[in-house]
Write a structure and sequence with these properties.
The chain is α+β, with helices and mostly antiparallel strands. It has nine helices and eight strands.
Length: about 290
């Protein structure tokens, strides 16, 4: 009697354990599916691209503001007042052409610093001063700060807007629409990003430029939204690298770009798409 009771209880216990195991597997099945789905999403790698922000640095000094001009003029007047009179007899032989040249230049500096009647000619002009004035007229004058490219609105000329930072933009076709973007290329399997950036620049812009990539590390990243994705999933990633042009000019590959332009930050804003502008504006210099 005792043995039958023990056997029946063991059978019931085995059935309960079996049912509990099946219930556990059934409840864990949805969780496993969710984990697998999450892993599949994480392992989906985007398409990598590299872009080059090619910069032409300012080639002339910036024009002073009204406050800066007033400040430096005030400092120049203080400097001249503290150092007058200058002992030119110690440095120049009396009656020499160098002394006459110095006197002419000194009068000009006095007139510029303090205005008339300072620096005005008094008395007769000597022969040495006449000779010095004739030689000074033949000297080269300073080049104008406004280039011909600024007057003619030549956006392809590297000498335009000499006080500002210029950036290279290419005109491309994107799904049948003309868009302006920085030089950009894809990354091959196993290729370093900065190598891909250099290769992409040469493919799209030619090898007629002497350029220098600032660093092997990108200065920014841009996540363009795929137009075919209704959910807004990011499929492409663009890593931007900063580079400088030393010499040469762009010769765009017509299969990749139809046109090019050297533009300031403000001019770039008027040509690119709004999403593109929001992604790259912080990588550009304000001046």
């Amino acid at each position: 009697m005792f043995s039958k009771t023990v056997l029946s209880s063991c059978k019931r216990t085995h059935k309960v354990c079996l049912l509990r195991g099946l219930a556990t597997e059934a409840s864990a099945a949805p969780e496993i599916v969710q984990v697998n789905a999450a892993l599949s999403k994480k392992t989906a790698r985007p398409n990598l691209h590299t872009g080059i922000i090619l910069n032409r640095s300012p080639i002339i000094t910036r024009t002073l503001t009204a406050f800066e001009k007033a400040y430096y003029a005030y400092q120049a007047r203080i400097h001249r007042a503290l150092h007058n009179p200058f002992p030119y007899d110690f440095y120049f032989k009396q009656g020499s052409p160098l002394e006459s040249r110095f006197n002419i230049e000194e009068r000009r500096r006095e007139r510029k610093a303090f205005g008339a009647p300072f620096g005005m000619q008094t008395g007769e002009t000597s022969e040495a001063e006449k000779l010095a004035e004739a030689t000074m007229r033949d000297e080269e004058e300073a080049m104008p700060r406004v280039h011909e490219a600024d007057i003619s609105s030549d956006f392809k000329n590297l000498h335009r807007r000499g006080q500002r930072n210029l950036y290279l933009l290419l005109k491309k076709q994107d799904n049948g629409t003309a868009v302006w973007k920085f030089p950009q290329g894809s990354v091959d399997r196993g290729e370093l990003l900065h190598h891909a950036a250099t290769r992409g620049l040469e493919v799209e812009c030619g090898n007629n430029m002497d350029t220098w990539i600032v660093s092997r590390n990108p200065i920014g990243v841009f996540h363009p939204l795929s137009p075919a994705s209704a959910s807004g999933a990011e499929k492409d990633v663009v890593f931007f690298y900063k580079a400088h042009i030393m010499a040469g000019q762009v010769r765009p590959n017509r299969t990749h770009a139809q046109d090019f332009a050297w533009l300031t930050k403000g001019e770039i804003k008027t040509r690119v798409d709004e999403d593109y502008w929001l992604g790259i504006k912080d990588m550009l210099s304000d001046f």
